[in-house]
Amino acid sequence: MTDVIKAISDASNQANSLLDDVKLSAETALGIQDPLKILPYRGYGTSEWLYVKGRVLQKEGIKTLPEDASTLENVQNMYRRFESDEVPNAQIKVCIEDCQETVTADKEGFFEAWLRPSSLNSADLWPSVYFELLDPPPRTQLVVNATGQARIVLSSAQFGVISDIDDTIVYTAATDPIEMVKIAYLGNAHSRRPFAGVDPFYSALQDGQGEDGNPIFYVSSSPWNMYDLFDKFLTINDIPNGPILLRDIELSPANLLSFDHAGHKRAQIDPILDSFPELPFILIGDSGQKDPEIYRQLVEDCPDRILAVFIRDAVPEDDKRHQEIDAIAQSIRSAGVDFLLFSDTITAAKQAEAKGFIDKSKLSAIENDTGV
Q1: DSSP assignments along 178-243, one per residue
Q2: Do the Cβ atoms of 196 and 371 come closer than 8 Å?
Q3: Alpha carbon distance 309, 236 (integer Å)
Q4: What three-state secondary structure class fits 58?
Q5: Cα torsion 240, 218, 224, 75: sign
Q6: Where in the chain are the domains?
Q7: What pLDDT band is residue 372 in, cutting at 50, 70 and 90?
Q8: Which of these ranges, 56-70, 107-121, 315-329, has the smallest mean pLDDT?
Q9: CA-based, 20 to 30 A from 32: which of 50, 92, 262, 288?
Q10: How, if at all, do strands 160-163 and 145-152 pair?
Q11: Which pLDDT belongs to residue 44?
Q12: Residue 297 class from Cβ within 10 Å (0-12 exposed, 13-18 middle, 19+ buried)?
């Protein structure tokens, strides 16, 4: 069955690639291409190096919609996200202070760069990075550029946080496909609701026992097409900013069937651990999919790097999934790593305070937000 799914997936990818090439050639010949844009994603690094990523696209015309936007308006916006036309093999200049690199995008328009500026202001945790399109030339604009940011991780950081998004900080009903589609694709950043207490809890984790020193990385299996929605969701709800790491995959039925959640998340998490070898991490996820299994494997592979695993309970109380999680919890605890399955944010916050991850003075704000 696996071989059949792989064959379908490969054939689908080839067909999509061919269709994209034909569409691009036709639009170029007819002169009907849309203006170009650079979409920068938040990067991360230290005062000595930075990793940044982005994508070159034709402008999709995505609108900023209010909470009471109609279903039709939300659907149209989502359609524009997934019908975005990438610009393959584009050349981009990436600059920060005295450091400049020229990079080439892949066939899906994605590019990444490693920058090594001679010096960065250690007080600036979010330095700006400048992007400019060199090739292809602008169509209707004089210049195509953008400004992004990267999170600087200081040596004084107590720990880092790696957090899932769906059903961890925002309710998306990941265990109910029909309800999940309604929430994820028929709404917008304003209509989505964070779990109570997430904002003050994550702010407390970011502060730790100091102030704004601990980085938070958001890792999700959602596609990069959803980046702007997640970015706006964090800002609207005052949830601490951090690099948002999503997946690059065609949304064909074959790819959805063959998608490897564990493989994707490890591919995003491992470079973070490797980039900050002296920094321990707290892992936060939910019980609905494979976060517990992924985090257990991380604990087995590098137990000295993981301080704790927090899992929001996203399945019904009588679900057999709890038996699987109990076994995972025992395995993680036997490795000397704290594990907590929690239903409400204040329970996680109290455990974090007991372990010294957050300051006790922050609990009252979390209690107020959760109504406890």
Answers
A1: HHHHHHHHSS-TTT--BPTTHHHHHHHHHHTTSSS-S-EEEEEEEEGGGHHHHHHHHHHTTPPP--
A2: yes
A3: 27
A4: strand
A5: negative
A6: 34-152, 160-370
A7: low
A8: 56-70
A9: 92
A10: unpaired
A11: 97
A12: middle
What's the gap between Cα 192 and its chain centre?
Answer: 16
Cα dihedral: 361, 305, 276, 242 (round 10)? -50
CA distances from 5 to 102, 223, 254, 258, 259 (A): 38, 20, 6, 6, 10
Q: Quick one: how far is CA 311 from the chain centroid? A: 17
Pairing of strands 145-152, 36-45: parallel
Residue 165, number of CB atoms within 10 A of its CB? 23
CA atoms in the 13 A half-sphere facing the CB of 362: 28
DSSP three-state, residue 4: helix
End-to-end CA distance of the chain: 49
- Which pTM was predicted? 0.85
Asked if 129 and 150 count as a contact pair (C-beta separation under 8 A), the reply is yes
- Say how far apart CA 84 and CA 57 lie, in whole Å: 7
CB contact at 8 A, 90 and 136: yes
When pLDDT is cut at 50, 70 and 90, the band that residue 184 belongs to is low
If one counts every other C-beta atom within 10 angstroms of the C-beta of residue 194, the result is 20
CA distance 337 to 331: 9
Task: Check pLDDT > 90 for residue 138.
Answer: no
Please state, in angstroms and rounded to a whole number, the distance separating the CA atoms of residues 311 and 345. Answer: 10
Q: How many CA atoms lie within 13 A of 28 on its CB side?
A: 10
**pLDDT, position 254:** 45
Amino acid at residue number 280: P
| pLDDT confidence of residue 66 | 65
Superfamily covering domain 34-152: Immunoglobulins (2.60.40.10)
pLDDT tops 70 at residue 126: yes
**Per-residue pLDDT, 2:** 38
Do 348 and 363 meet the contact criterion of CB atoms below 8 Å apart?
A: no
Total residue length of the chain: 372
Architecture of domain 160-370: 3-Layer(aba) Sandwich (3.40)
